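Next up, a specimen:

>
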Amino acid sequence: MPRPVATLPQPVLQTSGGFLGCYCRNTDGSNHDDRSRAGPHKRTRSHAPPGAVPRRRFHHEDWQRTGENGQWGWGSEIIPLFDPAKIHVYNEAHGGRSSRSYIEEGLWDKILDRLQPGDFILLQFGHNDSSNSQNYPDRTTITGVGDEIMHIGVGVSNKVVHTYGWYLREYVRDAKAKGATIIICSPVPRNVFIKGKIKRGFDGYAQWAADAAKASSALFIDLNTIAANHYDALGQEKTANLFSDYQHTKKAGARLNAESVVEGLKQLKDCPLANDLAPTPVATTLVR
């Protein structure tokens, strides 16, 4: 029986984002390959103190380019929240990517080539799945979590497009095949307030992320809700100061989102990442 075919969502906005992930590995003191590479997408790496032997390695990729045009993703800001003597944090931002285009461009394959048993991957997509942009004209996915497909192009140019949830499940499947574990995060909120409250749910993507995590038996952090709670506590005026536009956060906003990720990690059961947080509390942007 053929799969049902669906239409892609209409382009309604231009966004800048990409893949988000982290890896955590038990180590024996051996060095891991350096993921800091030259090029337009600079990757940020944290280092353990001289002489220290990290017990794990933790790599992180962000959905925004770090600091470009005043736009910061939380991958850079989560680095100091972990103990560098226990964990190495890498930020490998690739702006403008969706759950689909990150795979189609071969970026995910590069990570799979380095992935080892025991790694953890923290995954966030959604900001770019709903629309194309001038710089990224072919990245949209079908809304939802089903097995619907759509063919784009003809002949050798033909592409099969799947749903947002389908792509998330593929990441989980690939990671499990490597002996790694994915923690799926729902997308952080945009700077959109309705009647004094920040808009939640990210137009359905937050729930679809949760559904994909459940269907694939992946861990899940409801980052959309955790961050939204803190933005509501700050209020619309103060929240606006944390964004460079309606979608992209400044450094302080990225820090709030990073702290929200840590908050979510602490709520997970049987996840060791919370044991590798920085021993001394650092200045926070969260409302207490």
About this structure: The chain has one domain: 21-276. The two ends are 54 Å apart (CA to CA). The helical segments are 74-77, 101-104, 107-114, 164-177, 205-215, 223-234, 236-240, 251-267. The first helix runs from residue 74 to 77.
